[in-house]
Here is the input.
Amino acid sequence: MKTIQSDLNEKLLQQEFSSIPDNDNLQLKKCQEIAQTFVELENGIAVLSDLQFNKSYVYSGKLADELNVFQNKNIQKIESIWEEELFAKLDSDDVLQKHLLELQFFQFIKAIPFEEHKDYCVVSRLKIADNVTQKAILHKMFYFTNPNDCNVELALCLYHFDFLNSSLHHGMIINTANGSVIHQTEDGNSAFLSVREKEILKMIQEGKRSKEIAELLFISINTVNRHRQNILEKLRVGNMTEACMMAVKLNWI
Here is the structure.
């Protein structure tokens, strides 16, 4: 099964980067300063991922103490672009939603002019796992693009407590320059599959076979099979059982 995280990992790391030594990267140094300042100001956690070299710099504030993660108070380097130690403390479904939103954000960034990249970010609400008080943290992520090749070379993730404790949304892509919401999790994810695809997936979940589905919907078996293939490709799973499980988790069916 090719997961959403592995697909995003592949898209981020397999870009054709310009060969700039990381110690000479001025954008990296600027982002490191931003991460350090954020942690000092917000008591949060900042993770700066270098996509060209597949590593991250972790800056830990007091939030790390609350979650019992990244206990080394010096800047930590991890040989990955994923902060798995932190993800393990969070609701797994929320982390899945986060990865899906980031994949959509990456595709969105690639489709807009380079000059506009800096105006957009992703915001996700992530519940803390096994927490009786239902505390949650807010995650904000920015992509930083290399002006030479227009590839996303850095990802800066900022985490802090959700003080408003608002569960109205799981996540969104926003324009920080004008405050507009470009994409919201509920609306976007519900439309990620078409109405017909969700209808067919629901029938598959109920145990109906392609021939029966075709008869009920007055369409050909070939059309049903084409929809099934589209569902597998969109959800990046290997079979319809996995597709049904993921769709249920994400409240699509």
Remarks:
- DSSP finds ten helices and eight strands in the chain.
- The radius of gyration is 20 Å.
- Residues 187-191 have pLDDT under 50 and may be disordered.
- The first strand starts at residue 45 and ends at 50.
